[in-house]
Amino acid sequence: MIVVYGINEKLNPIKADLSDAIHACMQAVLGMPEDKRAHRFIPLDREDFYYPGGRSDAYTVIEINMMAGRTPETQKALIKMLFEKLEKDLSLAPVDVEITIKEQAPHQWGFRGMTGDEANDLKYKVNV
Q1: Is 102 within a domain?
Q2: Rounded to whole angstroms, what are the CA distances from 119 to 33, 71, 93, 126?
C-alpha cells in the first residue's frame, strides 16, 4: 500500500498522474501486476502540513508499505526511478519529494482472509 501526502491545492490536480507514475515504477522495478494498485492520497490543508525549509508548496511525501524481502539494491532502484519519473512526468523537483519504504514481515500483512506468509498465489515476487 502506498500513502501520498501533500498540500491539497498541489496534490489534488495531479493525483491520477502521480498514481500512474508511481505504479509504473512499481511495475518496472518490483514486477507488480497492472491490477495491484493500492494508493491512498491524503491531501492536507496548508496549516496541517509542515515540511522542511527549502521546499516548495509542491512538497510531496510518499510512503511505500511492502512485505519484507526486497534487496537494498532493489529498494534503491525503486526510489531512484521514482525521483526520475516524477521529475520528468510531473515536474516535481527531487528536493520536493520524500520517499520512505516501510517493510513489514509477511505475517504482519492481512489480505483476502489470510496473512501474507500464507498467500501462495501472489502474481508477483516479493524476494527480488
Answers
A1: yes
A2: 16, 20, 38, 11
Predicted structure pTM score: 0.90
3-state secondary structure at position 125: coil
Is 121 domain-assigned?
no
Report the sign of the C-alpha dihedral through residues 7, 23, 73, 127, in that order. Answer: positive
Which mean pLDDT values do the consecutive 10-residue runs of the chain (128 residues) have? 97 98 97 93 97 96 95 97 98 98 87 79 71
CATH of the domain at 111: 3.30.429.10
Query: What is the domain range of residue 104?
Result: 2-115
Confidence at residue 1, expressed as pLDDT on a 0 to 100 scale: 93
